[in-house]
Amino acid sequence: MGFLFPLWGFANDITNPMVAAFKNILLISNFESALVQFAFYGGYCLMAIPAAIFIKRFDYKQAIVMGLTLYSVGCFLFIPSGKMMAFEAFLFSYFVMTCGLSFLETSANPYILSLGDEATATRRLNFAQAFNPLGSLAGMFVAREFILAKLNPATEAARHELSISNPATFTQIQQSDLDVIIGPYFMLGMVVLAVLGIFFVAKLPGSSTGREGKLDFLPTLKRLFSNKRYREGVGAQAFYVGAQIMCWTFIIHYGVNELGLSKAEAQSYNMVAMIIFVSSRFVCTYLLKFINSGQLLMLLAIGGGLFTLGAIFLSGMVGIFSLVAVSACMSLMFPTIYGIALQGLGEDAKLGSAGLIMAIGGGSLMPPLQGAIMDMSAFSIGSFVLSSTRASFGLPVLCFLVIGLYGWNTIRHHTN
To answer: Would you give per-residue pLDDT tens digits along the chain (416 residues)?
Structure first.
């Protein structure tokens, strides 16, 4: 199972910088380029329930094999997408990829929870999730060194001028840049195929779901959404994923627009943020031995909100340092919300897990909203002028507020 958690981390974080890359290559707006995240996380959202039904009907192993198959197919679709030079084709490729990732996360997370004592389930999942950022770091490194650093350095303004004065040369540059993007995704597809072969022949202990041929979909769904802790957890997870994707996707825009960095240089700050994220996850997992999970979630949300406010209102290097520091607070949010929401659900956790994976759809809706804010003019607050880039991070602040309230409600109303 250790192969799987880094795999979707790699996919997530090689993709985040592509929002800035496609904007420059195809000369589209921030809102349009953020549709990469809409397609990517939309696959998670739409495929989660079908994946849960598949798991119930078959078993965890077959769901993992299906997920890896779709994942690899999505990667290989980048080849015709690049040759077509069509943004919509790339969006479809991302969607297919994440339909596979949805299968993987919907099966791997509850499978880990089922492999031991329920009292230590959240801690066990946190430990497994701690390997996810290792894949994320690898994805960020590949994005920086093998994509962003190899793209044609022409600015958007220069590309606009060239598209008018010499369309043939401009098209050649576009095709060359898209070929740069295709290469790493093709190699990723080959790696996923190799992992697929391993899981196809492997025997997973306890992978059977004890199916009886009856899904009981509607009764299970009714029980789940009558459970306040679960219902609130789905909402909190949606806002968490939205905050995470916004902070990591647009740190490049922050570095470029506010500090004049190149995209590759700005991506280095994203890598530092991920290193902090990884380190903090191990530390916070250890702290769960001594502190209530709801209390820790609330404290992390408060910290995340304060650091994001720093990115908004503190200019220069202090602002980007604040944005990097947010990752320390986000490190444990996903698995902690996941574990709290599914606690005590028993067999209903299989479909419940799908609801929490659907909540990843928060990452599809919020980045385009932030991109739309970035496309606006600067905001004036009296004599204080706030750039649209910095103002757009008000959305993650609202997300952290919702997460903090879930942690508070967990402390007040639920048993941990």
So the answer is: 667 888 988 999 999 999 999 999 999 999 999 999 999 999 888 998 888 888 878 888 899 999 999 999 999 999 999 999 999 999 999 999 999 998 988 888 777 767 766 666 666 676 777 778 788 889 999 999 999 999 999 989 999 999 999 999 999 999 999 999 999 999 999 999 999 999 888 877 655 655 444 557 788 888 988 998 999 999 999 999 999 999 999 999 999 999 999 999 999 999 999 999 988 988 888 888 888 889 999 999 999 999 999 999 998 999 999 999 999 999 889 889 988 898 888 778 778 878 888 888 888 999 999 999 999 999 987 788 899 999 999 999 999 999 999 999 988 875 54
Q: Does domain 4-207+215-413 have CATH number 1.20.1250.20?
A: yes
Q: At what angle do helices 317-330 and 251-259 cross, to 10 degrees?
A: 170
Q: What distance in Å separates the CA atoms of residue 148 and residue 320, rounded to the nearest whole number?
A: 19
CA distances from 188 to 2, 13, 64, 270, 350 (A): 17, 13, 17, 21, 29
Domain ranges for the chain: 4-207+215-413
